Amino acid sequence: MQQKIPTVIINGAGLGGLTLYHALIKNKDIKEFNVKIFDRESGPQDRWQGYHIGINNYGARSLINCIPSSIALNVPKAIPDPVLNVEYHGFSLYDHTGNLLLRPPTRQIKDVYDAANLSVGVSLTITYRDELRHVLLENVPVQWGKKCIGYEESDDGVWVLFEDGSKEFCDILVGADGINSPVRKQKLPELQISDHGLTMVIANVAAPKNLLDRLSKLGGNAVFQETVGLNGDISIILFRYIPIEQESYDEPYYRVTTFFQYPSKLDVNSKVDDNDPTSVIDHVKYMIRKLRPECEMTDILLEFWNLVPKTSPDPKKYPFKTYDLVRRRKMQDIDPLSVVWSTSRVTLLGDAAHATSPALGLGANNAIQDADVLSQALLNYSPENYISCIKKYEIEMLKRNSDDVLKSRFIDLRQSTPVSYTGSIFRNNFIKILNSVTNFFDYNLIERKN
Ligand SMILES: Cc1cc2nc3c(=O)[nH]c(=O)nc-3n(C[C@H](O)[C@H](O)[C@H](O)COP(=O)(O)OP(=O)(O)OC[C@H]3O[C@@H](n4cnc5c(N)ncnc54)[C@H](O)[C@@H]3O)c2cc1C
Question: Which GO terms describe its molecular function (predicted)?
């Protein structure tokens, strides 16, 4: 007798959920699923998706494994090939005046396929997150405007409940619905979001060539540049040295993500209005001036913040697909192994299970790897053994992500601890020694053994 085709519902069409959709469809000749994907947003351009992210060789490998060749051909639109001799695709850490502290060994790859095939070492390619989501949305029948509010699970399957009163039945439910996942809140109510008392503000800007040239002159051409201050404050600039193709510019402009983070307690008496971008931008500039010394690096950071749009920008002058008002956000994470998991028809993937602080640039990479591992595990699905498939996925997913969340949290908290001037000399020298050691042994903290 022919078996019925099982249904998988993916709740959330972010980077992780979309990658899983493609992987399940790509493998349908081995194991066929009826796959449905829902998202609470009203459409693809509804919400800001825009900041840059680093995709490493592990994320690139899983991405290419999961997507069909027709989509893989479009990935360079989101992960453009590194510009040889102009960009260094890697991470560099500086002190608050722009002196180099750490530049871990990072393999320079020629394109995303090269990254996917890397067998030794680590690569890190700066990626347009909004474009990646756009590329991944191709041929995916997302059901938009469907906000999941919970589910009912039984021995036979799962009813997924939506805010509009509708419900859908499935054999497996995957919560790929981000840090505030309603699926996680119901499955594991005791798995809490950790708040480490840090505030971050992120914005996308189109920056003129002369500003990026000043940054590169000071700090080199790494496309992921971080500075660490004395007061628990850090800045991150992520950029690509690829001119924006828009006629309205009279000189070359480039896509840049600017990020500033500081201890939340510094905001205790501030009167910032998060619904007013001018108030937020002025506040970030005030913080930079207050926490940083007068120097070229501080001036450069301020100039990036001067470029942040205060109202919805003219699309002719704004290269990002989506725009949202800049606001303060809390730095949060979730250690998935801080509670005991019980395996059932309902599982989690990506930020829903293990939101990670951005310090090591791992969150999206791990969401994509989760999709790869889960889709492989589901190849052995049968109505009798679905629990063992999901368990196999969860064992790998939990270990890998718990390690990464804790590593990233450790670095974030270390960097966010205020130091005295003397303390900073000790800290900076320690990091410089670490730099020599990691480069001598050709070791990168995010390198995996397999
Ligand atoms: C500043 C910053 C820098 C970062 N840099 C990096 C980096 O360099 N490298 C890296 O790998 N990662 C980075 N990350 C993390 C990365 O962006 C996330 O980890 C990744 O996007 C998670 O993907 P996801 O699919 O799990 O969740 P998301 O991308 O958050 O997608 C979740 C989806 O679920 C939908 N959803 C939510 N609730 C519901 C609901 N109730 N019903 C239906 N749908 C719902 C949402 O609309 C969304 O589309 C960074 C994050 C930040 C904030």
Answer: FAD binding; monooxygenase activity
